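Field reference: sequence -> structure
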Amino acid sequence: MKILISQKLPAKLTAYDTLIEKYGAQLDFKPFYLIEPLSSREFRDQRVNLADYTAIVFSSRYAIDAYFKLCEELRIKVPETMKYFCTTELVANYLQKHIVFRKRKIFFGDGTPASLIALIGPKHKGEKFLITKNAGANATAITSLFEKAGLDFTEAELVKSVTQDLHGVDFSSYDMAVLYNPADVKSLFENFPTFKQGSLKFVAFGKSIVPAMEKAGLAIEIKAPTPEAPSVAMAIEQYLQNK
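Structure field:
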């Protein structure tokens, strides 16, 4: 079985050992898009002044890098009093690349928008929040809860998805392809506007990718993660076992 995975080649392939050894799977890794920071010129078009905010919401490491890069380019000194609210502990820990990690000003949730609201609570309700996101992304899941909680916030795009050239990829040679993000679908059809799925089986990993694939008319063979299969490798392995 030949499988195309729309991500960078990981440092270790240990998670895929069973697929390779037991099922003879051949894995090819090819990012369909890359995340890049907005230039200071692109950011200025939003008319957002980074210095106006006392708290910032991050949902990715890319946004963290982009924020500090923009502050440097725009010659804005990030105040020591800035509070950081991150969707997960993994994202929060990444802040150590840019600042000294202090628990009193860095907070992280469990990956859900509701957990961010719980973190803010009445204690931080008076802050002026900047919610960071990817260009073109829909942040309603978070902003709707911020509105309901009566919080003062502004959305700002800090990064963008840049489609990669996929013309060297022969999709007809693969049995299966794994997509993770709506940007994967966008890239696929920007490269191949008349793409036909044929016998190619698609794996959808993550909730956000499913509606994007369905809207594009792509049939989904495997949806993950699930409690039984929290990873792509396990989801494919279970699928092959059942077949």
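Note: The chain is about 30% helix and 25% strand.
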